[in-house]
């Protein structure tokens, strides 16, 4: 067994060896600043309810994990089913033998309970990998030993040692032992069983917070205590394995590594049994961001540029969709919504971004990184308008901004299409051509809804028309069209109530374009292909009157514009 030397280089000395992955020795990491990443997406991650994957999907993910550069892939629980055995075996044979130019090949792990059948099956599944490993576990907490296993401490101790030796005798020389529910286990028993399995021949020990009950300072204390009190602990690699029941898996793992663990068990996107495990991407990027000021120069061998791709693949194959605000890989993780942030970010990205999104493989193009809505300010509005090809003067921006805010109050998001409409509305000043005189609506259960309308033209003339329609609003707008005689297409129509109740004020928002326009609602079209749209708003207690007024406001803009 390799013993850790007492002279260790300083962080400055290892600065030069940045990104260098030390050679793999099961029980010892030649560079004390290197942290092994043990990915358990395919084992604990698959224990997320509903996340089961096919062998082929697991193989695809394992290949991607190797591209990501994880040191260890826990491929599954071979004894649990025939397909699981097949998946772990395929991963061991293919990914576990695919050696990179730099000599890198991931360790492939099969997990097993402390019994002969599980261990034999796990060994059968992984043994053809270049670096095969078995991880065997047994619970050591009073509650688990009594109620789940029905065994005494002495029995658990004996089984654990016997099974480690059994695994060694099968020919496996890289064995991990896991005292399940370690954080609720008695300390002295933990030191004792770990000391004994180390004597029996394990190369790593993982300390799981199986039920996610521990605070970071408690977990850190536990790791430090195990280091200080377990006989022979210096001859193995000490690992974390934290669950997220209280949302502390990442914090606990970071505390574990800070006080001396050198292998971290993590999953992509933090998936795992119940509330999940510590997320690989969060741990790796936290270590990278705070490498010198908090972690004494610790580093991993992860190729962070592959993070997004791996996250997306796991999301797709497991069906465990990410919440938008998931750190680093969620859809909103690098999107700025509020005006003050957008202004700062547009001036200098680092005002609000702690890492470059590109460093985890995010490719941003024009318009990415911020969205427009009621909380945006002029800086972001101007930027997006410029990106859409509009160069506006300050007073024009101010005009558009006023209506932009009003629209933002009504819609969750102001789209590029909305911006085009706002600009075409505001930048040219339009004298109204038509004004509503009167209207009368007849509706009910008999006959068709109909509207009689009187419009006043700017030249002083008065025009009356009557129309039926699908509903009152439809009949009213059709009556307007009879008078105006302009081919118009209704692009958008929405009504919101400002005050609840039947006496509430309704606000109507209407967007129109010319009938022959090639109107497209996608925001990706280039400026040349999009015909202008025109919007109008009106508010009042009567929905038909408000709709007609909004429609006429939009119409006046359309008629006054030169296409
Ligand atoms: C903390 C963790 O995440 S541990 C990993 C959990 N992952 C899984 O359980 C996924 C795979 N599991 C499975 O497919 C099945 O549970 C199997 C095939 C392993 C076992 O299935 P079954 O034989 O039907 O047993 P079942 O799951 O109902 O119960 C577990 C048995 O294992 C025993 N057991 C639990 N942990 C261990 C252990 N570490 N070592 C030895 N025995 C154990 C239990 O005491 C129980 O035994 P009992 O039936 O004599 O009471
Ligand atoms: C078996 C171990 C590693 C585990 O998953 C846990 O305790 O949570």
TrEMBL record:
It catalyses: 3-methyl-2-oxobutanoate + acetyl-CoA + H2O = (2S)-2-isopropylmalate + CoA + H(+). It is an enzyme of class 2 (transferase). It comes from Arachis duranensis. GO terms for biological process: glucosinolate biosynthetic process; L-leucine biosynthetic process. One of its GO terms (molecular function) is methylthioalkylmalate synthase activity. The keyword ATP-binding does not apply. Pathway: Amino-acid biosynthesis; L-leucine biosynthesis; L-leucine from 3-methyl-2-oxobutanoate: step 1/4. This is 2-isopropylmalate synthase. Belongs to the alpha-IPM synthase/homocitrate synthase family. LeuA type 1 subfamily. Residues 35-308 form the Pyruvate carboxyltransferase domain. InterPro entries: 2-IPM_HCS-like (IPR050073), 2-isopropylmalate_synth_dimer (IPR013709), AIPM/Hcit_synth_CS (IPR002034), Aldolase_TIM (IPR013785), LeuA/HCS_post-cat (IPR054691), LeuA_allosteric_dom_sf (IPR036230), LeuA_bact_synth (IPR005671), PYR_CT (IPR000891). CDD domains: DRE_TIM_IPMS. Its EC number is 2.3.3.13. SMART domains: LeuA_dimer (SM00917). Keywords: Amino-acid biosynthesis, Branched-chain amino acid biosynthesis, Leucine biosynthesis, Metal-binding, Transferase. It holds the Pfam family HCS_D2. One of its GO terms (cellular component) is chloroplast.
């Amino acid at each position: 067994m390799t013993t850790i030397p007492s002279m260790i280089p300083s962080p400055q000395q290892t600065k030069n060896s940045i990104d260098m992955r030390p050679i793999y020795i099961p029980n010892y990491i030649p560079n004390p600043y290197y942290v092994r990443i043990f990915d358990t997406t395919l084992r604990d991650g698959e224990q997320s309810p509903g996340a089961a994957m096919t062998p082929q999907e697991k193989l695809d993910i394992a290949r991607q994990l190797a591209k990501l550069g994880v040191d260890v892939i826990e491929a599954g629980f071979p004894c649990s089913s025939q397909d699981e055995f097949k998946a772990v075996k395929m991963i061991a044979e293919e990914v576990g033998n695919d050696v990179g130019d730099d000599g890198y090949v991931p360790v492939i792990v099969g997990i097993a309970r402390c019994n002969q059948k599980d261990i034999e099956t796990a060994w059968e599944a992984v043994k053809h990998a270049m670096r095969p490993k078995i991880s065997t576990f047994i619970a050591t907490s009073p509650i688990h030993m009594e109620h789940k296993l029905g065994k005494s401490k002495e029995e658990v101790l004996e089984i654990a040692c016997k099974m480690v030796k059994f695994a060694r005798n099968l020919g496996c020389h890289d064995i991990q032992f896991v005292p399940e529910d370690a954080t609720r286990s008695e300390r002295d028993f933990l030191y004792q069983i770990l000391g004994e399995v180390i004597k029996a021949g394990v190369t790593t020990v993982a300390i799981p917070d199986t039920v996610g009950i521990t605070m970071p300072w408690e977990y850190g204390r536990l790791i430090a205590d195990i280091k200080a009190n377990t006989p022979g602990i210096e001859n193995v690699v000490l690992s974390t394995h934290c669950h997220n029941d209280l949302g502390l898996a990442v914090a606990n793992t970071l505390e574990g590594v800070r006080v001396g663990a050198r292998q971290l068990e993590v999953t992509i996107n933090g998936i795992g049994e119940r509330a999940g495990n510590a997320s690989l991407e969060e741990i790796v990027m936290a270590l990278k961001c705070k490498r010198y000021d908090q972690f004494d120069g610790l580093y991993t061998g992860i190729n962070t540029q592959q993070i997004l791709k791996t996250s997306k693949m796991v999301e797709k194959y497991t069906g465990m969709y990410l919440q938008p605000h998931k750190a680093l890989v969620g859809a909103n993780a690098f999107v700025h919504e509020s005006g003050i942030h957008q202004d700062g970010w547009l001036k200098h990205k680092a005002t609000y971004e702690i890492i470059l999104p590109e460093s985890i493989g995010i490719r941003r193009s024009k318009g990415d990184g911020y969205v427009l809505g009621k909380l945006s300010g002029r800086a972001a509005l101007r930027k997006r308008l410029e990106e859409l090809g509009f160069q506006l003067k300050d007073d024009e921006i101010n005009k558009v901004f006023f209506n932009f805010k009003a629209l933002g109050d009504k819609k969750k998001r102001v789209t590029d299409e909305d911006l085009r409409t706002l600009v075409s509305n505001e930048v040219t000043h339009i004298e109204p051509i038509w004004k509503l005189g009167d209207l009368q609506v007849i509706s009910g259960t008999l006959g068709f809804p109909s509207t009689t309308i009187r419009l006043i033209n700017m030249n002083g003339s008065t025009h009356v028309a009557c129309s039926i329609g699908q509903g009152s609003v439809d009949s009213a707008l059709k009556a307007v069209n009879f008078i105006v005689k302009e081919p118009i297409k209704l692009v958008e129509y929405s009504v919101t109530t400002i005050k609840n109740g039947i006496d509430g004020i309704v606000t109507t928002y209407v967007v129109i374009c010319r009938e022959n326009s090639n109107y497209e609602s996608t925001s990706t079209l280039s400026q040349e292909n999009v015909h202008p749209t025109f919007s109008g708003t009106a508010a009042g207690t009567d929905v038909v009157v408000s709709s007609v007024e909004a429609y006429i406001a939009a119409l006046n803009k359309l008629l006054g514009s030169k296409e």
